[in-house]
Automatic annotation (TrEMBL):
It catalyses: a 2,3-saturated acyl-[ACP] + NAD(+) = a (2E)-enoyl-[ACP] + NADH + H(+). The keyword Magnesium does not apply. Pathway: Lipid metabolism; fatty acid biosynthesis. NCBIfam families: PRK07370.1 (NF005615). GO terms for biological process: fatty acid biosynthetic process. Keywords: Fatty acid biosynthesis, Fatty acid metabolism, Lipid biosynthesis, Lipid metabolism, NAD, Oxidoreductase. Homotetramer. SUPFAM superfamilies: NAD(P)-binding Rossmann-fold domains. Its EC number is 1.3.1.9. InterPro entries: Enoyl-ACP_Rdtase_NADH, NAD(P)-bd_dom_sf, SDR_fam. Belongs to the short-chain dehydrogenases/reductases (SDR) family. FabI subfamily. This is Enoyl-[acyl-carrier-protein] reductase [NADH]. The active site is at residues 148, 158.
C-alpha cells in the first residue's frame, strides 16, 4: 500500500551509513521514490566522495552540494530540481549542528556566535528550504524533519541543541499552518537516541542509549530503518490527513515519567 512511485524526493543530511537520513533515503527508494541527495561540500571533496559512493546503489538522479549557510548553494540546489524534475514532492530535512561549546559546560556561558550558528543550521534551514520547496510542490507535498526529546525536556549534554530542536518543532507547526492550503504537509519525527556521527558529539550518548533500553516500554532503542519507515509513511498518501505533528519513534520512551 505504501507506494511512492513517481514521487521526487530530496534528502539532506546523509553523512555516512549510520546517518538517520541514510535510513530514510533507503526506505524512500524501496517505496519507489526518485531520489535527489545533497551533500556538505568541503575543500578537498571528501564528503562528496563518501556520500556519492554510499548512495550510488540508490541511483539518485540529482546529487548536489548544499551548505545551508550559503544562499547561492540553496538557490542552485533547488534550481537544479526545477530544471531536471520540474516538481518536488518530498523534502527530507536532517540537518543539525552545535559545536562543543554548545554541548557542554554551563548553558549561560554559550557565546552569541555559537548560539546563532546552531539555530541557523539546525532550525532556520528548515524554514529556508521550505520556502524554496513551496513553488516546486505544485501537486502538494510532504516535508519531514528530525527532532529529539531534548527539544521539550532537559537532556544532559544536549544544551544548545535542545533550544534548536524546540525552535525546529515550533517551525514545523507554523510551516504546516502556512503551507496547508497548498496541500503541503509538514511533520517532524522525534527519534530515540541512535549512535550516529552527529550524536557522537553528545557526551554520554552510549549511556543515553542504555538508559532508553532499560526504561522504554519496548526495552530497546530504535534503528535508522524504523525511523525511515515512519518517514516513508509521512511522505505517502497513507498519512494524507497528518500535518504539523511530531511523531515519536523512540520505543515509547517519551511516555515514561521514571
Amino acid at each position: 500500500m505504501l507506494d511512492l512511485t513517481g514521487k521526487n524526493a530530496l534528502v539532506t543530511g546523509i553523512a555516512n551509513n549510520r546517518s538517520i537520513a541514510w535510513g530514510i533515503a533507503q526506505q524512500l527508494h524501496q517505496a519507489g521514490a526518485n531520489l535527489g541527495v545533497t551533500f556538505l561540500p568541503d575543500d578537498k571533496g571528501r564528503f562528496e566522495k563518501k556520500v556519492r559512493d554510499l548512495v550510488e546503489p540508490l541511483n539518485p538522479s540529482i546529487f548536489v552540494p548544499c551548505d545551508v549557510q550559503n544562499e547561492e548553494q540553496i538557490e542552485s540546489a533547488f534550481g537544479t530540481i526545477a530544471d531536471m524534475w520540474g516538481k518536488l514532492d518530498i523534502l527530507i530535512h536532517c540537518l543539525a549542528f552545535a559545536d562543543k561549546e554548545g554541548l557542554s559546560g554551563e548553558f549561560s556561558g554559550i557565546s552569541r556566535e555559537a548560539f546563532t550558528k546552531s539555530l541557523d543550521i539546525s532550525t532556520y534551514s528548515l524554514v529556508r528550504m521550505a520556502k524554496s520547496a513551496k513553488p516546486l510542490m505544485k501537486e502538494g507535498g510532504s516535508i519531514v524533519t528530525l527532532t529529539y526529546v531534548g527539544g521539550v525536556k532537559v537532556i544532559p549534554n544536549y544544551n544548545l541543541m535542545g533550544v534548536a530542536k524546540a525552535g525546529l518543532e515550533m517551525s514545523v507547526r507554523y510551516l504546516a499552518a502556512e503551507l496547508g492550503s497548498h496541500n503541503i504537509r509538514v511533520n517532524g519525527i522525534s527519534a530515540g537516541p541512535i549512535r550516529t556521527l552527529a550524536s557522537s558529539a553528545v557526551g554520554g550518548i552510549l549511556d543515553m542509549i542504555h538508559h532508553v533500553e532499560q526504561v522504554a516500554p519496548l526495552k530497546r532503542t530504535v534503528t535508522q530503518t524504523e525511523v525511515g519507515n515512519t518517514a516513508a509513511f509521512l511522505c505517502s498518501d497513507l498519512s494524507s490527513g497528518i500535518t504539523g505533528q511530531i511523531i515519536y519513534v523512540d520505543a515509547g520512551y517519551e511516555i515514561m515519567g521514571m
